Amino acid sequence: MENEEALFNDEVSDGVDALNLKWVVGFNKDIICGVHNLTSENRTEIFYTAAHTGVIYNYITREQKLLQGHCNKISCCTVSADKRWIVTADLGEDALMVVWDSLTATPVKTIASPHGKGVYCIDISSDPRYISTLSRSSPQEIAVWDWSRDVEDSNDAIIVSGEVPFTADSDEGLHYSLRFNTSNISEIATNSAKSVLFWQWDEDEQTLRYDDNEKEMKSFFRQSIEALTQTVFIPNTTQAVTGTKSGQIVVWDMSFIMETDSNPEQRRPIKIVQLVNTEATFLTTQGDYLVVGSKDGAVRFYDQRFTVEAWFEHINAENILSISFADLPPRSCKEELAKRGEDSTSNFACPDFIVASDNAKIVELKSTFFEEVPPAGEEETFVQGTILVKGMRYPVNAVAVHPKKPWVAFAGGDGEHSYIYVWNHRTRLRQKFKPVNGKKILREYSKEPLCLEYSPNGDFLCVGFKDGTYLLLDSENINGERQPQIKYTDKARDILRIIFSQDGLAMAIADKENKVALFKWEHKKNNPDNPMEWVHCGSHKSHYKPVTGLAFGTSIDENDRNLLRFFSVGEDRRLIEYDTNSTEATQLQILSVNKIDQENKPTCCIWYPVSTGEDLLLTMNDAFKVKLWNANNKDCRLTCLGPTSGGPVTKIKLIVKSKDKQSTIDLPDYYLAYSTAEKIIGLIKLPLDGNPNKTMGLIGHPGEISDIAVSGDYKFMFTTGGKDLCANMWFIAEEAIERQIALGGSGEEPFQNMIEGGKNGKAYKDMKDFFYYSQIRSKKENTTKARKLEGTVPLEEIGYLMRAMGYYPSQQEIDNMMNEVKYSKFTNTGKVVNSLDMDTLLRVFVNHRPVYGVDRNEIKEAFEVISGGRGVLLKDDLFELLFTKGEPMNERELRGCLTSLLMPVGGSAESMIPNEITPDYFLEKILGFEEVAEEEIEAESQLVFENES
C-alpha cells in the first residue's frame, strides 16, 4: 500500500488554471460502443468517456490522460482501427466534434457545431480519413466528413450529406446505429427500431444514396419482430446482420437478380436466425467472427454460418454495450493451454478484449478464458475476467472527504437502488472494509442517501437519507454492525444538508420539510455517568420555504470564552439564529429572525473566517451577490458582485492555505470553493472587496452539480455530477488566482474595467460628472460664491447618484449601501464614515447594481400575480398597492413621481392614467421603457461577462 500511495504523492499543478482536473471517477456507461481498447504490444491503455471528458486510462500504471474541451456530455465516440485516432462528439449548444491523437492526448481537429446541435451517432472508416455522423435533429441528417481536409470553415470538411427519410419525432423513427463497412468504406448502414438503410456514397461524384428496402421489409417481415438494435457488415462478404431485442439477427444479402424498380445489388433480408434467448445488445466483428454481446451479460463468437464458436458467460456483467479488441495477434486457446500442459479441442483464437456493461464495469477478457471450467461447487460465484474500471451505476448525490485520510465517500441512488462507497484518492482504488458476520449493512439499508459528511475528527461518516433517517457510520469500517441511527421526527423526509461545528461537538441538519435540527455530542440527560452520544436537542420548522444554508460560528463572550452560534437561511429570505444552549428539555429555540432581502433569495451561507474585528456571516443570493452580515445586529456590512456564469452559487466550502514559509504574516490565506446548480465550479479569494479578479470559474460538469467537497489538506476539490454518473478530482493551484489578481491591476483599475467602456468610456465619465454635480449641489448650487470642493459628498447622496446612473435601488438597498460605507473603517479606526468619495462610489455601484435588468416578461408575470391572473390592474388597485405594500409611498411621493414621469400639461398626472392598466402601458407610457431588440440585450449581457473576465 505504501508503494501504491507513493505513485501519486508528488501532486503538482501542471496547468494554468486555479482548478486542474487530475482524475475522473466513473464513466458514461450508457453510451453504446463508448469504451475502446487501445492496447497493443507497446501500450496497456483503454479509452472511455466520463461526462464531458475523454479518458485514456493505463490500467497497469493506473494513470489517466484527460481529453478536455467539450461543454456538453459526450454523446458518442469512436476509435480508428490502428488505435491512433479518437473521435468524440456531443449534443447541445456549442456542440463540438474533436479528433484526438491517442498517443499525445492532444486535439488535432475541432469541428464546431456539427449538424448545428451536435452528433448523436458516429463511426470512423477503416481508412481513418473519413468520419460518418448522424444528427439528433428532425429531420435527421447523415454526413460523411474528411477530417484531414485543411479548410477555414470546419463544416466544409463534409464530403456528402443527406436526410434520413424517416421522422425523428418518435423513438421508432430515430436512427441510432451507424456503421461503416470495414471491407468497403463507401458503404454505411444505419437503423432505427423498425427500419434499416444501406447507404452508398461517392466522394468524386459528391453523391449519397440509400437502398429503399421498405417494400422488401414489409413482404419479408410478415410477422412482427422485436425492435432492431444494431447493424454490422460481415467482413469479406456481401452480408450484413441486424440484431433484435428478442435475440434474433436479420441477415441481409445481395440477390443480384434484376427485378422491376430495384437495384440488383440492393441488400434484402434473406433469413432470421435466433442466436440468443435475450436481447442482442451489441454487435461487432473480429476477423471472420460475428461477436454478440447480450443483455444477460454474455459474449458469444459466431462463424460465418452463424454457429457459435466460443462463449464467455461468467463475466459478472449485465447488458453488454461495448466490446473492443486489442491491437494484438489472436491468441489460440489450444496453444495457450498447451503451454500449461492442458489439452483443448477448440481452434478458437482472438486477441484480448474488453467489454463494458450496463452495471458500470469495464472488464478485460482473454481468449483462453473460453476453456476455463469453474471449480466444483463454485459455479454460481465463478467470475471470468479482470475488472479494469468500476464506475457508478446510479446518480451520484453526494461526496465527502475524510479530514485526515485520503478517503472520499460517494453516495447516491435512483430511488429504488442506493449505494455508499469510499475511494482512496491516493491509490485511486476503492477502499475495502471487512464485512461483519458476513453482512454489509449498507446493502441492507435500501433508502436512498441524499447527503453525507465526515465529522471533523474523522470518527464518523454521517449520512442523511430520503426517509428522514440520519445514519452515523464508523468511518474506519462502514460495514460495522453497531451503527447508531437517529430519526429525529416521524414526519422528517429528504435530509438535504448536514454540517458540523468546527470542534465537532455540534451537528445540524435540514430537511425537505423546511425543518432545522440540532444535535450535540454530550452525555445523555447531562449525566456524566452516561456515555457520550449524539443527543437530539430539538428541531424547528423555522422557514416556510426551502432551507438553503446552515452555518456554525464561534464568538467570544464577555468572559473570553468561545460561544457556539448557529444560523440558517432560506428561500423565504430570512436569516435565523438559534440558541445552541437548547437541550432535550427546552427543544430548539430561536434567538432572532431577520429578513435580509426584499426580492432576492439567499442560496447558501458560511461563517466568515477572515478576522475583521467583528463576527460576520457570508451569504450568496440568486442575484449573483455576496453579502457580509454582522452576526450580532444583522446589519449588512458589504455587498459584492459574485460569480455570474452558470447561475447563482448554491454550494460553498472553505479552503485554508498556509502562507509561504518566507512570509512574515502568520494568518493563512482563505478561499471559497463554490459550485452553481449546473456546470460551473470555481474559487473565490478572501477577504471580499468586490475585485472581480479574485474570482474564477470553469465548466466542472456538463449538467447538474450535485455536491462538492474539499480534502483535509486543502489540495483537492471533489465534485459530483448527479446523473452524469461521474465525480471529478481537481488540484487546487491558488497561485493562478494570485497571478490573475496581479494582472488585473491595482487600486480602482479592476472596478473601472467593470464599467461599460472602462475608464475612458461614457458611463464612467457620466459617473464623474454626476459626482461633481452632487458636490456642487451639496454646497448649495444657487450661489455665486466660490465653493471649496473636498472630493466627497454626504453619504445621503448615494441614492440620487445610483438613480442617475440608471440603477433604481429600494430604500432598504440604499440603507444597506449607506451602512456598508458608514462602518467600512469602524473596526480599524473606531469611527464611522459620513461621506462618499469617487472611488467608493464606483465600488458600491459596480457591486450593487443588478447583473440583469428587469425585462418585459418579468413585468407581465408580476401583473399576472398581483392581478389574480387577469394580467390587467385597475388604477385604484395599483395605487392601493403602492400605498400599502413593499416600501409604502405616501400620496405626495406618488404624485411627485407621476408628475415627473408623465409631465402633464395642466391638470393632474393621475387623470392621464386609464382605469385599466396593462403591462405594456405601464412599461411604455408610465415608465417610458423602449422596446430593446433581443440582439442588443444579448450583446449587453455578453459585455457584462467580458468586463468581469
Structure description:
The model is unreliable at 932-949 (pLDDT under 50). This protein has a four-stranded antiparallel beta sheet with strand order 1-58-57-56, with no helix packed on it. The protein has a four-stranded antiparallel beta sheet with strand order 2-3-4-5, with no helix packed on it. The chain contains 16 helices and 62 strands. Among the domains are: 73-274, Methylamine Dehydrogenase, Chain H, CATH 2.130.10; 749-848, Recoverin, domain 1, CATH 1.10.238.10; 856-948, Recoverin, domain 1. It has 949 residues and is α+β, with helices and mostly antiparallel strands. It starts with a helix and ends with a helix.
Report the radius of gyration as a whole number of Å: 33 Å
> Would you count the extended β strands for me?
62
CATH fold title of the domain at 73-274: Methylamine Dehydrogenase, Chain H
CATH superfamily of the domain at 73-274: YVTN repeat-like/Quinoprotein amine dehydrogenase
**Average pLDDT metric:** 87
CATH level 1 name of the domain at 73-274: Mainly Beta
Named CATH architecture of the domain at 73-274: 7 Propeller
Strand content: 35-45%
Unreliable runs: 932-949
* Global shape: globular
Structural class: alpha+beta
The main sheet comes to: 4 strands, antiparallel
Estimate percent helicity.
10-25%
DSSP helical segment count:
16
Termini separation comes to 44 Å
The strand order across the widest sheet is 1-58-57-56
